[in-house]
UniProtKB/TrEMBL annotation:
This is Uncharacterized protein. Keywords: Signal. The keyword Signal applies. Residues 1-23 form the signal peptide. It comes from Micromonospora pallida. GO terms for biological process: carbohydrate metabolic process.
Length: 527
């Protein structure tokens, strides 16, 4: 990795204004501000259940007949997204539960009603189950509630399972535990889906000679409502091993199948994390019919079909080693956090720290100029800030005194951006990963590097929090925009290469960050 540089090409655009700071007489604790934002409604939809995209490119971009300007950007309402909704449900459940415990009382009917509302929104993403025709995705939560074809992911369902367990703990509603158990059964099927394809004479997994073989042990990433199974297994599915172990404790089945599933998946998925890989692509034989088949995930060259680990965008091995591609920060962070959580459940915090220390040290030792933040990731907002990022931290990339500017990513909070092992044409959302990553890694970093965790938490506490609709920008929660291209031809001029400025308004950054604080610090410590 050490010899690879990153190139970044973006266009200068009209700066996007951020909301002015508002002085507060009494500072609001960070987790309280997150809660207030998540349960607030905008256009009749809870912020915790929404995802919007704003596009700006001066007066050159027109969406649905409206000119997009810096003062009035075009907003495209995205679908409700179950992973974001589940993260919000988990945060709300944990927050209310901890707050009530701190105040030495039970949850009020209003509070349990709020949890029920979020849980109902999550469970609405499930398809109606047909007991006469069982499907592999029965009891799973779809990524979005609309569309002719819906998709069910192992990663997203693990997040929903955790949320439902948290809702059950807070409210005691048996149905939430039942729903979480259904997700556990779905994950068992995604770990070994062969039985659902035998009637077609097809096996989801074949060896190098094309003969049927057993699955490697991880959870397959995704399946559609057409029962089309996608041929990748990602390292971030280590989040599922933490959920499955927690489910094992909650329901205690006599055959230990959830715990055993977690142990098997951990053994396989940890290998990918150790190799510095994003996902494993398995080989398969499948008929050419449109449904009930195994299909390749075409994005990021995930159609390698060679039963090996890879990074996004590359099927290449050089001298027996992974070569090329993009190493995704979120894959790493979720993977490390899942591994840490699983080991801690089994053997405690010290053992969990020992299980991830070497991996954490390896990833945080990658210099900043290997990430997508190697060039300024935010010159969509202010082109005057463009330029190469200062190599502004010591070798472990998380020193106490930065020498870069406020436009650079902040490794005090997380890893920052994507690790690029080949030159990209566009940058990643570094600031988004700052705030999401802090939450994902909070417990792990509080145990491994407590001084650095404290430094990141203090940065968050000092941020301007009056607009929590966006991820961090210049140490605040004001609007984050980034350079992109009009690949979907939003303005209808058939030019899909032109630059635009894109801002994401959603739930994951706030919910994950708040969850991390509650898990690592606790509600009482924020008072």
């Amino acid at each position: 990795m050490a010899g690879l540089l990153v190139a970044l090409t973006v266009a200068a655009v009209t700066p996007v204004p951020t909301a002015p700071a508002v002085a507060a007489a009494t500072p609001v604790p960070l987790v309280d501000s997150y809660f207030d934002w998540i349960v607030a409604s905008y256009d009749g939809v809870r912020n915790g259940l929404r995802r919007d995209i704003e596009h700006v490119y001066g007066d050159q971009l027109v969406v649905a007949g409206k000119t997009c300007t810096a003062a009035s950007p075009c907003t495209v309402g995205g679908p409700q997204q179950s992973t974001a909704a589940c993260s919000a449900l988990q945060f709300v459940s944990v927050y209310l539960d901890q707050r009530a415990a701190y105040e030495q009382r039970s949850l009020s009917s209003v509070e349990t009603g709020l949890i029920d509302e979020f849980a109902s929104a999550v469970l609405a993403h499930r398809l109606t189950k047909d007991p006469n025709a069982p499907k592999i995705f029965d009891d799973a939560v779809a990524s979005t509630p609309d569309g002719q074809i819906r998709y069910f992911t192992s990663f997203g369902n693990a997040a929903c399972g955790e949320a439902l367990l948290a809702a059950h703990q807070a409210t005691g509603v048996p149905g939430y535990l039942d729903a979480a158990t259904g997700i556990g059964e779905f994950l068992l099927r995604m770990q070994d889906p062969r039985a659902y394809y035998l009637t077609y004479g097809v096996y989801p997994f074949v060896d190098g000679t094309g003969q049927p073989t057993t699955p490697p042990g991880g959870y397959v990433d995704q399946i559609s409502s057409w029962s089309n199974l996608y041929s990748t297994i990602s390292t971030w599915n280590l989040t599922a091993i933490a959920f499955m172990q927690r489910l094992e404790t909650a329901v205690a089945p006599p055959d230990n199948r959830y715990g055993q599933s977690a142990a098997t998946a951990r053994q396989f998925l940890t290998t990918g994390l150790q190799l510095g890989a994003d996902w494993y692509t398995f080989d398969f034989d499948s008929p050419t019919t449109s449904q009930n088949r195994v299909v390749a995930q075409s994005s990021y060259s995930a159609d390698c079909r060679d039963n090996r680990w890879h990074r996004k965008g590359s099927c290449t091995y050089t001298d027996g080693q992974l070569a090329g591609g993009t190493l995704g920060t979120d894959m790493i962070e979720y993977g490390l956090a899942g591994l840490y959580d699983h080991e801690r459940q089994l053997n405690g915090a010290s053992a969990a720290a020992a299980a991830v220390t070497t991996l954490y040290t390896t990833y945080t030792s990658i210099p900043g100029w290997h990430t997508a933040s190697a060039s300024d990731p935010l010159d969509c907002v202010d082109d005057t800030a463009a330029g190469a990022v200062d190599p502004y931290y010591p070798p472990d990339n998380q020193g106490a005194t930065p020498s870069g500017d406020t436009w650079d990513y902040d490794p005090h909070l997380s890893f920052g951006g994507f690790f690029r092992l080949t030159a990209p044409t566009e940058n990643a959302e570094a600031k988004y990963y700052d705030i999401v990553g802090f939450g994902i890694l909070a417990e792990l970093r509080e145990e491994l590097v407590p001084a650095k965790f404290t430094a990141g938490y203090q940065r968050l506490q000092q941020a301007d929090r009056q607009d929590a609709l966006y991820a961090l920008l210049d140490r605040s929660l004001a609007a984050m925009f980034l350079p992109a291209r009009d690949t979907n031809d939003l303005d209808g001029d058939s030019d899909t290469t032109e630059h635009l400025c894109k801002g994401t308004r959603g739930t994951l950054p706030v919910a994950h960050n708040g969850l991390g604080i509650l898990k690592a610090v606790g509600y009482a410590a924020t008072r």
